[in-house]
Every structure is written in structure tokens, then in C-alpha cells.
Amino acid sequence: MGNICDCDKNGQDNNGVNPRTPLLSGNSHHTPITREPSGTATGQSARSYKPEKSELISSLEELSLISLARIQSVPSLDKTFQDHGKLYNDLYSNFVDLRKCLNEFKAKFEADTAGIPTITECLKLLAKQCGNARLIGSRTKNCIQITYDKRYVSQNCEGQPEEVLETLELYNKANKLIKNLLDKAPQVKSSITLVLEEEHKLKREVTKADPDGKLGPEPLKLTSQNFIKLHKIPTSIDTINNYTSKAFKEIVSGSKILFEDT
Predict the structure, then answer these.
(1) What share of residues in the chain are helix, strand, coil (percent, to 5)?
(2) In DSSP terms, which residues pair with 32 in a beta bridge?
(3) To which H or E segment does residue 177 belong?
(4) Is 112 helix (H, G, I), strand (E, B) or coil?
(5) How far is it, in rounded angstroms, from Cα 254 to Cα 248?
(6) What pLDDT digit, counting tens, does each position of 57-111 carry?
(7) What pTM does this model have?
(8) C-alpha 152: how far from chain center
């Protein structure tokens, strides 16, 4: 029987961050975890389901892509804005994909959970569906991946083979998205924060780029509007990070049953 252990608990990534040319990277180390042929697992009562806090749901609904105006008079500043807009938009798009993936994963168990499945409950039901199929898990920082033989799972699972295999694929996909988000969210936030700290200096660059005022107030106006949008991003990233962290903690806790030798 294998256990899920947090092998990267004390590990930290060292990433240099520059507001003009941010770099996002990360390292991971694998720790194997296994599930030998197992018996059954029962589902949790739907009454134990607890919806997300209303303020979190409200925050999630307020998230959206960001569009920053072009600052043609200061190419370096324009690049800074566009680079960081893309960093956040990529993060947001991955977050949308994660929520969609988790919803699809939970939807596999709606019929057995009165239509309100939790991640923990879904994983118990998945363990039951896998039956005697042997699963091998690999835990890295912010991610768990299950490897399995499709033919063996198809022959030994208790549910419909196609459905079980699709559910396992959704599990792996969700974990990959979680890793991407939890690895990059702090870096994107840090890089954008550095830009915000230089706000007054960067605005002066816009003014200096047009000493005669031939371009009028538009460049500075657009710059100010961009900064107003950027000031909202750290809070949005916190919302993304909090939701993703909560989901991963549920997955880590609930996944133990997948690798138990019962």
C-alpha cells in the first residue's frame, strides 16, 4: 500500500522577476504512490455537502480577462503592459479551464450524489468504480498524476470502462492545471506588484517622451487607465490562488483512498 507524502513541503523555487521581462519557471521532484487491487468504497451523504462561501463565488464571478491600452510613445512601457496583461490572461484562461475540468469531473458522479457532488465524495466513488484495477500515483509539488494500464482498468473496473477511463483522465488534467496555476500565480502577482511600485516613475517617462505636448493628454490618460486595471489584478490572483489551493487540498485528502491496499 502506498501513501501520499508531501515530498516538496520544504522546497521553494527561486525565480528572478523583472517587471519588463518576467520569467516563469519551476522544478518538481517525483514521489511514487500506488494503489493495489482494492475492494469497495462507499459514497458520502449529500447532506454533508457545503457550498462555497458566497463572497468567494462573488469574487469568482467578477474575474475576467484584462485588456491594456497600447502606449506607442514609450515602447518599453507598452511592452511591460502587454507582457503582464498576457501573463494574467494566460493564468485566468487556465483557471477557467480548471473550473470546467472540475465540473466535468464532478458531473460523472451526479447520479450517485443527489446532483451535488464534492471532490472527496467523487474520489470515494471513483475508487469503487476502479474495482480491482491497480493504480500508480506520482506526487510532485502541487500535483498528483495517476498512471494505469487502460486495458487492465477496463477489465477490472466495476463501472463502464469508457466512463472510468474518462474520469481518470479528467483527474490528471485537473491536477496539471492546478500545478500550473499554483506554480505561476505567485510569480505573476510578484511581477505585477513590481510594476505597480514603479507607477509614478513610469508615468514620468510618458510625460518626458512628449516634452512639447504634441500628443496631448491621451498617452498619460491611457497609462493611468492601465494602472487602474493592474491594481485590481493582485486581488484577482489571490482569488484564483485561494480557489485552486482549496481544490488541491481536497484532492490530496480525498485521493488517499485511490492508493490504499484494502
Answers:
(1) 60, 5, 35
(2) 138
(3) helix 161-197
(4) helix
(5) 10
(6) 668 888 999 999 999 999 999 999 999 999 999 999 999 999 999 999 999 999 8
(7) 0.78
(8) 31
Neighbours of 137 (CB within 10 A): 23
* DSSP 8-state code for residue 146: E
The mean pLDDT of 150-164, rounded to a whole number, is: 93
Q: What is the mean pLDDT of residues 151-157?
A: 93
CA 259 – CA 139 distance, rounded (Å): 12
Q: In whole numbers, what is the pLDDT of the chain averaged over residues?
A: 83
Grid cell 481518470 is found at 168
**Residue recorded with cell 510613445:** 73
d(CA 85, CA 68): 7
Burial status of residue 85 (CB atoms within 10 A of its CB: 0-12, 13-18, 19 or more): buried
Q: Could you tell me the three cell numbers for 10? A: 520544504
Per-residue confidence (pLDDT) for residue 151, from 0 to 100: 94
Cell of 198: 514603479
Residue 253 has pLDDT above 90, yes or no: yes
Residue 257 corresponds to which cell in the numbers above?
A: 483512498
The three grid cell numbers given for residue 15, joined into one nine-digit string: 525565480
Residues forming beta bridges with residue 198, ordered by sequence position: none
Q: What angle do CA 230, 245, 188 make, to 5 degrees?
A: 30
Contact of 132 with 164, CB cutoff 8 Å: no
CA–CA distance, 136 with 7 (Å, rounded to integer) = 16
Q: Is residue 7 classed as helix, strand or coil in its secondary structure? A: coil
